[in-house]
Design brief:
Blueprint: E1 2-3, E2 9-16, H1 20-31, E3 36-42, H2 48-55, E4 59-63, H3 71-79, E5 86-91, H4 97-105, E6 109-112, H5 117-128, H6 136-148, H7 151-162, H8 167-177, H9 182-189, H10 193-207, H11 212-221
Parallel strand pairs: 2-3, 2-4, 4-5, 5-6
Antiparallel strand pairs: 1-2
């Protein structure tokens, strides 16, 4: 992130949605925030890699359903980059299977398209800070969906992956799965916040994950909560 004239971090955003009216509305929302700049727009996921290479955004606000390259495919491509932007998914349905797949692909969270403008703006700020955007209600529904899919096989795979962690990392991973912040985890496990951050980074590296959302999904897949 760059600095604004007032010294606050400036968040660069790229909008990807095949609905021109949605893009216009988002531009208007972002235009009212002094710390957010819309760098570019695209109407299909196929154009986003080139735009990211050109503008180096902090956040990509991504639609899921687009005619040529959908948001899921585009998210996978973006998160495979050496220094990828955060991806915040836009969707019409809060229980859409594609949303769960997008989170597994590395999206930091998602918003419904009828989310109040102020909340959309604040969600962009939160994602830019590296924090997930998932409401408790929607998180519960996603977890229920995970639990309903491939019980034994998915659980076994998740537990095998988590076996790569040491005992303390496993404790931190479970706490992340509970939705706890670094400060909450530090207090609960009697650790410093920097130590928790180190453990989270180690978990992401060992498990080849992109963000805390993926840690939480893996913990729930393993049925550790």
């Amino acid at each position: 992130m760059n600095e604004t004239r007032a010294g606050a971090p400036e968040i660069g955003v790229i909008l990807v949605d095949d609905d021109a009216l949605v893009r216009v509305g988002l531009v208007m929302m972002m235009g009212g925030a002094p710390d957010i700049t819309v760098l570019a727009e695209a109407e299909d996921g196929g154009a986003v890699l080139g735009l990211v290479g050109r503008y180096s955004p902090d956040v990509v606000l991504m639609d899921i359903r687009m005619p040529t390259v959908d948001g899921l495919t585009a998210t996978k491509r973006l998160r495979a980059l050496p220094d990828p932007p955060e991806v915040l998914v836009l969707t019409t349905f809060d229980a859409d299977e594609h949303v769960l797949r997008a989170l597994r692909a590395g999206a930091a969270g998602f918003l419904l398209k009828d989310t109040p403008p102020a909340q959309i703006v604040e969600s962009v700020r939160q994602v830019a800070r590296g924090l997930p955007v998932l409401s408790p209600e929607v998180t519960r529904r996603l977890i229920d969906r995970v639990a309903a899919d491939d019980h034994g096989e998915r659980t076994a795979r998740a537990r095998e992956r988590l076996s790569a962690l040491n005992a303390r990392e496993r404790d931190v991973a479970v706490a992340v799965g509970e939705g706890r912040s670094n400060a909450d985890i530090a207090a609960r496990l009697f650790l410093s916040v920097p130590t928790v951050k180190t453990h989270v980074s180690s978990i992401l590296t060992k498990l080849d994950l992109n963000n805390r959302v993926q840690i939480a999904l893996l913990v729930h897949d393993a049925r550790l909560l």
